[in-house]
Amino acid sequence: MKTVTNFWAVVLCAASLLAQTPQAVIADPPADKAHPARMEVPDVPSHGVGLYAVFYLAAGDGPHPTLLLMHGFPGNEQNMDLAQAVRRAGWNVLVPHYRGSWGSPGDFSFEHCIEDTQAAVTFLNDPANVKKYAIDARHIVLAGHSMGGFMVADVAAHDPRVAGVALISAWDIGRDKEAVDSISDDFRENASRLKGTSAETLQQEIKRNRQAWDFIDWAPLMKGRPVLVIDSNDGLQPVNHDFAEAAKKAGDGRVTEMHLDTDHGYSDRRIALESAVVRWLEQVAGR
């Protein structure tokens, strides 16, 4: 009897989890032959160069809410599965690559990454692109993983056109004492994948900007807009929690915070990550 009881407990638990998983995460939507989903590869203008980008465009006539998804340092995990799930939920998703990374021309630096993220927001708000890609400019949301979380926090805080922001294990560069005091093997290896820089150059850049680059200071500037903060077991949970708390204390009642029991790349919680982001985006879009 105990074995049977345990079996049905497992079945009911699995059914409950499945019910909480948005359809967009686990199933393709009906095909729209008149306005099919498609992919474009535009060059996003940024300070004299064109950033290589992938633009997943949602099916349907539109206009569609649009997510700007920024990867981390150097971008080994680019979260394209997340981008696809968000597109299945009816959103366009733009995934650009910073200068000096993954085929984009120019030299990599953290300052350039901030500028490139802002350039991508400007690209999405350009009237010609709004029309061409069926963008709902009222619902342009930013999401970033790791270093990308820092970048979208900065740009969203200072650009009122951004409708909401999602931080996924965001790296608060200004608070990273370890990156200032020493250069780890991982940091050196990741820097070697980027053009026009070095681990030493990036470390010096962090030192110069420590006071200006603490993203906790930007949290109050999110007031009135929805904020999603997701963290994991990668050591970044305290600073991500501090960001969420700072936003709440500033009077932002639209802060959602979540912890997933996994590594920095969310390696064994991809479905949970996609589900959390898609559910939150549905609320942002008022669906």
Protein traits:
single chain, 287 residues, Rossmann fold, 9-stranded mixed beta sheet, 40% helix, globular
Number of domains: 1
Helix share, percent: 40-55%
What's the level 1 CATH class? Answer: Alpha Beta
Task: Label the overall shape.
Answer: globular
Description of the molecule:
This protein is 40% helix and 19% strand. It contains 11 helices and 9 strands. Strands 1, 2, 3, 4, 5, 6, 7, 8 and 9 form a 9-stranded mixed beta sheet that branches. Helix 6 (147-158) links the parallel strand 6 (135-145) and strand 7 (164-168).
Short structural description:
The protein is α/β, with parallel strands linked by helices. Helix content is 40%, strand content 19%.
Architecture blueprint of SSEs:
Elements: H1 2-20, H2 23-26, E1 38-40, E2 43-46, E3 49-57, E4 64-70, H3 80-88, E5 92-96, H4 110-125, H5 127-132, E6 135-145, H6 147-158, E7 164-168, H7 177-181, H8 185-191, H9 199-208, E8 227-231, H10 237-249, E9 255-259, H11 270-284
